[in-house]
Specification:
By secondary structure, the protein is an alpha/beta fold. It has 21 helices and 24 strands. The protein folds into four domains: 3-218, Rossmann fold (3-Layer(aba) Sandwich), CATH 3.40.50.970; 225-324, Rossmann fold (3-Layer(aba) Sandwich), CATH 3.40.50; 351-514, Thiamin diphosphate (ThDP)-binding fold, Pyr/PP domains (Rossmann fold), CATH 3.40.50; 534-598, Alpha-Beta Plaits, CATH 3.30.70. Bound molecules: thiamine diphosphate.
């Protein structure tokens, strides 16, 4: 079918296949994760792999490009920070096969640790960037990106964002290209690919020349579009922001910048010539505005009225430009209008008892990013920092170096299995090498949970479900020099607390591995619990609410004030929802009154 309704990410995947991509690699991250999944599930001709992190993903695909194959790396915005090191130098080496880096931003931080604007990488990295605004453009711009990459000998960035990646719109597909056989590696090209100072200086000149050529090309590039209507007023925008602004002010003239950088200088000059008042509407940073002002133009409005943070929705754009009272971005839906439904760990999740234990121990926990970050919220309240993937391991070490022996027994870091493999090994090596004494806890639930169950080198499966080597965390710890390696079963709360305290007390690095605790939503691996369901004995529950401290979605509080039990007045009792309980037995371990018992047939 030539026309289909497609999600932005699905259109990106399809475009990669239709553009003849041979190799695609990614590390998952919302809102980009579906792209590689779709490639792996739908386009068998494309080699696809989950890399342990974004830097490796980009390096893998750049190798394919150097061999002459078309190649794609996908990541979320913060992933590009991790991949920035190869990116900055790949701009100098250039490519052989078309090399595209898809980066998906997350304005409003729906699912991210920051709200950075990836457009800043394009100017900084000296590589062009395209920005689609709907699924059709995802498809078209991606195909353009591969052509552009080969034509100008450059990696090309394509920036998506949550609303583009995760919206479904109609896509008219083009003719697929045959996947071309890579031309192969050529030793004679070493001066292009070996970035030693002598070659860097030559490459530097090529980079500048390329930017100039791209600047000229931008003026004729079909992804940049000018539409002259009302000449009194017009707007400059890109991506989804262009669509939103166009919806509200359809009668205005417009300049859509499909290429974010370099900018089409002649087109911009023409637009300012033809339109009396130019408004620059852009989400997050004043990227276009800074550039356009530097060219000597004075927009009528830009960031003086348009917010510099969060998403730009049609109503925010409208209020900002219609000169209403509206100044700062508002939280759109007032929390008090909604029933409170904070995100929570799943029923039976192995992270819950571990963080309950850490809370009871009173430890300061340097945390990380994953489902377990949810333990920062009350009542678990057992994650005290979250910065970026792998950071907690090194931060615990740094804090303990700063505080000296007084921190012994009180500090640790926790990170997930995927996060450990992404960026946790290097800081653990650092702790050992520099004679630290921090405790590193790996919550191994056998999958990349938070982003939707992607495989990684510790799961034993590739992206296409083929069995493969499974990393042994204990062996890794030993190889890095950790002497104290301990396995704990997080579901056994008292034993876990004892083990954690012992490890934190040690004046040496230690690695704690939470074992036999697969993600509750994983199908292939299941924790076997003794019983499948627990219930409350109403005659024994005193309503002390201790079991509510684990924030289990299956447990709730039922008011029945005035009732007494053994002469003890209780305000209510606890209820366990039999449709939700999976029998993890965590709540039972907390009940002093033996009021929580298994249901036996
Ligand atoms: C640099 C970077 N890349 C990707 C992400 C997206 N991301 C958030 S958490 C996470 C991994 C979580 O998996 P794991 O560590 O196994 O913990 P789990 O969610 O399974 O508990 C990923 C990929 C990110 N936040 N930062």
């Amino acid at each position: 079918m030539k026309k289909q309704i497609m999600q932005g990410n699905a259109a990106i995947a399809r475009a990669a296949s239709d553009a003849g991509v041979s190799v695609a690699a990614a590390y998952p991250g919302t809102p980009s994760s579906e792209i590689l999944r779709d490639i792996a599930n739908t386009y068998p001709e494309v080699y696809a792999e989950w890399a342990p992190n974004e830097k490796v993903a980009l390096e893998v695909v750049s190798g394919a490009s150097f061999a002459g194959a078309r190649a794609l790396a996908c990541m979320k915005h913060v992933g590009l920070n991790v991949a920035a090191d190869p990116l900055m130098t790949l701009a100098y080496t250039g490519v052989k096969g078309g090399l595209v880096i898809l980066v998906a931003d997350d304005p409003y931080s729906h699912s991210s640790q920051n709200e950075q604007d990836s457009r800043n990488w394009t100017r900084f990295g000296k590589v062009p960037m395209l920005e689609p605004g709907d699924s059709q453009e995802c498809y078209d711009f991606m195909r353009e990106a591969f052509d552009l990459s080969e034509r100008f000998d450059t990696p090309v960035l394509v920036r998506s964002e949550t609303r583009v990646s995760h919206s479904d719109t109609v896509v008219e597909l083009g003719e697929p290209l045959e996947q071309t056989k890579p031309v192969g590696l050529d030793k004679k090209e070493w001066q292009k690919y070996v970035m030693v100072p002598m070659n860097v200086r030559a490459a530097r000149i090529r980079v500048e020349e390329r930017i100039r050529k791209l600047e000229t090309y931008a003026d004729e590039f079909k992804c940049n579009e000018m539409e002259i209507k009302d000449t009194k007023i017009g707007f400059i925008a890109s991506g989804v922001t262009y669509n939103c602004t166009k919806d509200i002010f359809p009668e205005w003239s417009s300049l859509k910048l499909g290429m974010v950088w370099p900018l089409p200088k002649k087109m911009i000059a023409e637009f300012f010539n033809k339109v009396e008042k130019v408004v620059i509407v852009e989400e997050l940073d004043p990227f276009f505005e800074t550039e356009i002002r530097a060219m000597g133009y004075k927009p009528f409005h830009g960031k003086d009225v348009i917010p510099t943070m969060y998403e730009l929705t049609p109503d925010i754009i409208e209020k900002s430009l219609k000169g209403s009272e509206y100044k700062a971005p508002e939280i759109r839906v007032k929390p008090e209008d909604l029933p409170r439904r904070p995100p929570n760990l799943c029923v039976g999740c192995s992270h819950r008892p571990l963080f309950y234990a850490l809370n009871k121990l009173g430890a300061f926990v340097f945390g990380d990013i994953g489902c377990y970050t949810l333990a920062a919220a009350p009542p678990l309240s057992a994650i005290h920092t979250t910065v970026c993937m792998g950071a907690g391991v090194a931060q615990a070490h740094g804090a303990m170096k700063a505080l000296g022996k007084e921190a012994l027994g009180k500090v640790c870091s926790v990170l997930g299995d995927s996060t450990f493999l992404h960026n946790g090994l290097t800081p653990l090596m650092d702790i050992v090498y520099n004679k630290g004494n921090a405790t590193t806890i790996v919550v191994d639930n056998r999958i990349t949970g938070m982003t939707g169950h992607q495989e990684h080198p510790g799961t034993g499966f590739t992206i296409r479900g083929e069995p493969t080597n499974m990393v042994d965390y204990e062996e890794i710890g030993r190889a890095l020099g950790v002497k104290s390696i301990r396995k704990v079963d997080p579901y056994k709360i008292n034993e876990t607390m004892e083990a954690l305290q012992e490890e934190m007390d040690k004046d040496e690095p230690s690695l704690v591995l939470c074992v036999d605790s697969p993600c509750m939503l994983l199908r292939r691996e299941k924790r076997q619990f003794e019983h499948s369901l627990y219930t409350i004995d109403a005659d024994k529950c005193r309503g002390c609410k201790v079991c509510l401290n684990i924030s289990c979605p299956a447990i709730s509080w039922r008011e029945n004030a005035g009732e007494t039990i053994d002469g003890h007045k209780r305000k209510g009792i606890v209820y366990i929802n039999p449709d939700q309980c999976v029998g993890c037995q965590v709540c039972q371990q907390l009940c002093k009154f033996e009021a929580i018992n298994p249901v036996t047939q």
